[in-house]
């Protein structure tokens, strides 16, 4: 790994010189700390002029997008589950109504059978036959 030369050409103002020295020390620190594999990412970052804030911003944006998508998925799932529960309850109510109607019709049919039997007995006793 080649070491960059540590030439300090300090600008005229004192503040700019401090910034240049701090930036140079940061670059040197990155070179000493980072392994060779991550050196490529540093080189790409330097070539694009980024300071890592773009990557951090992109990462934060990706996390935010993930959480928003996750929340929307949860809300849609909750809505679908609520709708299915509503349909189940509605179907149960309809089935209960139909079964109560069937029971009532069954009672009516049994009453009609009793009345029919009474009429047939009365007709048989009176001597009128078909």
Automatic annotation (TrEMBL):
Keyword Ribosomal protein: no
Region (Disordered) location: 36-57
Pfam families cross-referenced by the UniProt entry: DUF4577 (PF15145)
Keywords in alphabetical order: Membrane, Transmembrane, Transmembrane helix
InterPro entries reported in the protein's UniProt record: DUF4577
Coiled coil: none
Transmembrane segments: 64-89
Protein name (record): LSME1 protein
Species of provenance: Rhagologus leucostigma
């Amino acid at each position: 790994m080649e070491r960059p030369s540590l030439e300090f050409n300090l600008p005229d103002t004192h503040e700019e010189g401090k910034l240049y020295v701090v930036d140079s020390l940061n670059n040197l620190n990155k070179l000493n700390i980072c392994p060779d594999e991550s050196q490529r990412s540093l080189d790409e970052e330097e070539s694009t002029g980024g300071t890592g804030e773009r990557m951090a911003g992109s990462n934060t944006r990706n996390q935010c997008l993930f959480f928003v998508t996750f929340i929307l998925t949860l809300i849609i799932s909750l809505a679908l589950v609520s709708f299915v529960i509503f349909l189940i309850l509605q179907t149960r109510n309809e089935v209960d109504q139909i079964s109560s109607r069937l029971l009532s019709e069954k009672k009516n049919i049994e009453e009609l059978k009793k009345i029919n039997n009474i009429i047939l007995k009365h007709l048989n006793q009176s001597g009128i036959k078909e």
